[in-house]
Write a structure and sequence with these properties.
The protein is of the alpha/beta class. Helix content is 59%, strand content 9%. The protein has a 5-stranded parallel sheet, sandwiched between helices. It has a 3-stranded mixed sheet with strand order 1-2-3. Helix 14 packs parallel to helix 16. It is elongated, with a radius of gyration of 26 Å. The structure holds adenosine-5'-diphosphate (ADP) and magnesium ion.
């Protein structure tokens, strides 16, 4: 369905620009219900998400929708009743958390341990979308992958602790979550704790502030069989938390429990990390994870597209893998954007679409007005403003007019009715047809392609 593909692309981009916590709490279980008359209706699970999106993230949502080809004048957030049990669960969690006020937004470990039995609480934090099966192995991540696999065979015996570091979006969270999921699949009662460092810090601070003692907190973390802590670079500068983490680490290590950590830098480069932690982090195995190489990126793209039932041809795959090369999150974002683009226009993903997409994606100065675009298009084709805005249907006027419409769409992301209005047309379907026509012609007509790229160059010269 076109809304859901578009929304996936939007979420993919938002995931890049907000923190993981914000993404999971506010965006993850939302959906685009419909887009009509420039109003986008987004379904959300409850009133808290609605308020938060309205007050804090509305402009980000509009901006990202616009980047993905639609230009809403307004977004409505509706509490949606057709929500899955998973969303319902989230809703009750949010309600529970909100009810006790902002300073207590997390359950204490004790509370959590009594909800749904020990196994359930210890499973918290794992997301089953991260598995070894859907992780593509290649140069850059194979060592980390092998170490994680080995740990699953016999947690706590080899590579303890495992410390994986590398840049953002290269698959660290995916891999270390996959370890938790795989161990849990083999041993459903294993006490696996996955926590982001931010969560660890927050829970520690809450336990001090609210309960005035940290014993529940400590026993929860020290009672795990496998402790997975993501992004430990955030321990920097937090003395008391480092102290707590030190004791947790020692207890687990002495009991031969597995510890896995990720970070964006090696232990020696984490500033203000206590020496005793720094040395312990390096006791086991430290792995430098790299951005996957070109071939691996291609394989990842084909696997992700395949997962959506789409077959990407080699040329398209390579073009995407070349352009989105810094990390896998960006690669996924580019793929989703491409699929949404194609779906909305009813075209197959081909190399021309990829070029057009990246072309319109380049950062453009924002000070160009619709009027300027039309004027420059008219001048480029040596016709008058009167003609381009007027009723004449001669071919040497119609084509520039269509190109002007296309430019308003690709450069300013204006809505169809606005584009029609700017060109003195009453009916916005004219704009839709014109833009579609130019977009299609860009794929096979060399002269149209040339006009458009020259025009763009002049526009921003
Ligand atoms: P990091 O924690 O290093 O910032 P993530 O684990 O969050 O990165 O990865 C970003 C995205 O890329 C996730 O959606 C993840 O599933 C995907 N990803 C990363 N590496 C791979 C891979 N080798 N195979 C499949 N998906 C991957
Ligand atoms: Mg991560």
């Amino acid at each position: 369905m076109q809304e859901s593909t578009l929304w996936q692309a939007v979420l993919g981009e938002i995931e890049l620009s907000v923190s993981r916590g914000n993404f999971v709490t506010w965006f993850k279980n939302t959906q685009l219900i419909r887009y009509k008359d420039e109003v986008a209706v987004v379904g959300v699970a409850n009133i808290f998400v609605k308020n938060q999106l309205e007050n804090k993230f509305n402009s980000l949502v509009i901006e990202t929708l616009t980047k993905n080809g639609i230009t809403p004048s307004r977004v409505e957030y509706k509490i949606h009743t057709g929500i899955s049990p998973q969303i319902k669960r989230l809703e009750s969690d949010v309600l529970r958390n909100q009810a006790v006020g902002p300073s207590q937004t997390r359950q204490s470990p004790r509370q959590r341990a009594t909800i749904g039995g020990v196994t359930h609480s210890y499973r918290q934090g794992l997301n089953d979308r991260y598995s070894f099966e859907n992780f593509v192995v290649g140069a850059g991540n194979e060592l980390a992958y092998a170490a994680c696999q080995a740990i699953c065979q016999k947690p706590g015996s080899k590579y303890n602790p495992l410390f994986i570091y590398g840049g953002v979006g290269i698959g660290k969270t995916h891999l270390i979550q996959a370890v938790g999921n795989a161990i849990l699949a083999a041993k459903p009662n294993a006490r696996i704790v996955y926590a982001s460092t931010e969560q660890f810090v927050q829970e520690f601070v809450d336990s001090l502030r609210i309960k005035k003692n940290t014993s529940d907190f400590a026993s929860f973390y020290r009672g795990s069989d496998v402790l997975i802590v993501d992004d430990v670079q955030f321990l920097a500068g937090k003395e008391r938390v480092q102290d707590e983490f030190f004791h947790t680490f020692n207890t687990l290590y002495q009991a031969n429990k597995q510890i896995i950590m990720s970070s964006d830098k090696p232990p020696k480069d984490i500033p203000t990390l206590e020496e005793r932690l720094r040395s312990r982090f390096a006791w086991g195995m430290t792995i430098d994870m790299q951005t996957p190489d070109f071939e691996t990126r291609c394989a990842i793209l084909q696997s992700k597209a395949g997962g959506q039932g789409i077959n990407l041809n080699q040329a398209v795959t390579e073009a995407l893998a070349t352009r989105a090369s810094s990390n896998i999150r960006e690669l996924e974002g580019a793929l989703n954007q491409l699929l949404a683009w194609c779906e909305m226009r009813g075209v197959e993903p081909d190399i021309a679409v990829v070029s057009a997409m990246f072309e319109s994606d380049k950062a453009r100065p924002k000070h160009i007005s619709a009027r300027q675009i039309i004027e420059r298009t008219a001048r480029h084709f040596h016709i008058s403003m009167e003609d381009i805005l007027g009723p004449k249907r001669d071919k040497d006027i119609v084509v520039p007019r269509q190109i002007a419409m296309y430019m308003l769409r690709s450069e300013l992301h204006l809505s169809y009715p606005k584009i029609a209005h700017e060109l003195g047309r009453k009916d916005h379907t004219t704009a839709i047809h014109s833009i579609d026509k130019i977009e299609k012609e860009l794929g096979y007509d060399g002269s149209i392609k040339q006009y458009v790229s020259e025009l763009k160059e002049r526009l921003y010269a």
